[in-house]
Amino acid sequence: MSPRIYKSTYPDRTIPRESVFSKLFPKNPEYDETLPAFIDALNGRTVSRGEVKALSLRLAYGLQRTLGIKRGETIMIFSPNSLIWPVAMLGCIAAGLKCSPANSAYTPPELAHQIADSGSGVRGA
After folding, report:
1. Which of 10, 37, 51, 104 is the most buried (most CB within 10 A)?
2. How far is CA 13 from the centre of its chain?
3. Which residues are registered as beta bridge partners of 46?
4. What is the pLDDT of residue 125?
5. Residue of 44, 79, 93 whose CA lies nearest to 36
6. Mean pLDDT per segment of 10 residues, for the chain of length 125 residues?
7. DSSP readout, 76-108?
8. Residues forming beta bridges with residue 76, ordered by sequence position
9. Residue 47, SS3?
């Protein structure tokens, strides 16, 4: 039996050739960089859009220059829900990495499966 192919009734859309990082942080930002990007619900700490961008770029630089991680490699982010998580994810995206976020509540067998399945050679906590 041949596979069944479903066609959308919606018109085709052009997907922009732009990274998520470039879309969120354009050269000429639409929003003030001092505006809050994230607010920690537990303690009220705020991180601005500019801070997120700067921290993410610093992480991206460190991943590439200090750790020697190459564009296209897969990295696993193992972190609880915190203000560091989006910075880590955006830093990896800025460095051109593929991200495999891991839940900090995973059991060791679940984590081992994700490491093997994602092919992540680098893991960050």
Report:
1. 37
2. 24
3. 39
4. 54
5. 44
6. 89 89 88 93 92 96 91 89 90 93 90 89 64
7. EEEE-SSTHHHHHHHHHHHTT-EEEEEETT--H
8. 100, 123
9. strand
Return the domain boundaries, the chain. 71-125
CA distances 89 to 12, 14, 59, 122, Å, are 29, 25, 10, 14
CA torsion sign for 82, 125, 117, 5 is positive
Q: Which two tokens stand for residue 43?
A: 């303690």
3-state secondary structure of 48: strand
111 by Cβ neighbours in 10 Å (0-12 / 13-18 / 19+) ranks as middle
Question: With 0-12 CB in 10 A as exposed, 13-18 as middle and 19+ as buried, what is 63?
Answer: buried
For strand 74-79 and strand 36-39, is the pairing parallel, antiparallel, or unpaired? unpaired
